Amino acid sequence: MASRKPLQLLFFLALLFLSGGALAGAAAGSTTTNGTASAAGAAAPAAITRAGGIRSLASSSPSSQGGGVFSLDRYGARGDGRHDDTRALAKAWKAACASPRPAVVLVPGGKRYLLKLVRLAGPCKSSVVLTVKGTLVASPNRADWSDRDRRHWIVFSAVDKLTVNGGGAVDGNGETWWKHSCKINKAMPCKEAPTALSFHYCTGLRVQDLKIVNSQQIHMSIEDCTNVQLAGLSITASGTSPNTDGIHITRSKDVQVTNCKIKTGDDCMSIENGTHNLYVSKVVCGPGHGISIGSLGDDNSRAEVSGITIDTVQLYGTTNGARIKTYQGGSGYAKDITFQNMIMDNVKNPIIIDQNYCDKDKPCKAQGSAVEVSNVVFKNIRGTTVTKDAIKLNCSKNVPCHGITLQNIDLKMEGGDGAAESTCQNAKWRKSGTVRPQPCTSKN
């Protein structure tokens, strides 16, 4: 029996040598989705040693398995905030989108990746997650955007089951755009500026745990999307920055927005034409222009908005609180809308419906048609106003607001300086519970 031990030992060593060589050879021959040799092969023995198994090898070369992590650095990104990393992101996205298995595009932490206009399009073969650990920063050079498309920076289109997350930041470098805005400098021509993040025709979209700062104009736009969840977002820009809406939603349905903090120079949320079945909760807003449905009916257009619930929102120092705004001359409807459980602190217009809204270079002319506003509930709203008109219902003479409910409202003048009031024009309303100020004590 003892004479067999050296033979067994030699056999074991030979088997170990052969299996190790086979593993190393397999690793060296692996390829990425675009057919190039994988760099993971050289690191395979170390990966096996650290984790002690073939599974670690597979994870170190995800593209050889048709899925996994596609890091920008692997596609030539510098991440120094100075060199253009647009192509690296586009390449990483293309590889991930072509993966037959769920894939992750990784923006590594601790770095700043400089980007120009980039379009990340589907359809993809499987679900894709863009995990932003570091910072995506817009080029500070406005010349990098042509007049053919000045409205976009990072655009996602036609992607099903897309998730964007990671806790990192998206920095629009907006200051250079703001100072050229006609709203800041009246001598400048009025031109569009990019939206930081645009999502077009996406289904099953999840955007969560991101910081979006200093966008050139709108921070995030959801357009023509279905089944959307936005959560844990921090959106920040100067209170004087022009047209920097926080979250813009249009032509989209089945959208949820929860646990977001928005501080901008325009609407914290702008809810526009084609939005149906939207639920917003636990949002903190201010500075900014508040939460607005509209503007609707611009340039004699038709607008349709329904099934909107704004619940559990705090507004601090905003121009408006709960607002619906429509242009004269429009058509369509804004209906089945609820603003509830809201706290107003130092807000200029806490509750306002304005069917005579105008944000044009020249005064808007009087027109007979209007977007019909109906079945709107303002419920459980309290706090302070800095103007006497805490409740303002300024509705169309030809298409009056109707089905307006004011329930359990308690709004006082900031600092106790006089009594708050309400005004009504062409509005059919009713009250429920205690409403302060008394609805429509004066009419003009």
Automatic annotation (TrEMBL):
PROSITE patterns: POLYGALACTURONASE. Its main location: secreted. One of its GO terms (molecular function) is polygalacturonase activity. One of its GO terms (biological process) is anther dehiscence. InterPro entries: Glyco_hydro_28, PbH1, Pectin_lyas_fold, Pectin_lyase_fold/virulence. The keyword Transmembrane does not apply. It comes from the Eukaryota. It catalyses: (1,4-alpha-D-galacturonosyl)n+m + H2O = (1,4-alpha-D-galacturonosyl)n + (1,4-alpha-D-galacturonosyl)m. Belongs to the glycosyl hydrolase 28 family. This is endo-polygalacturonase.
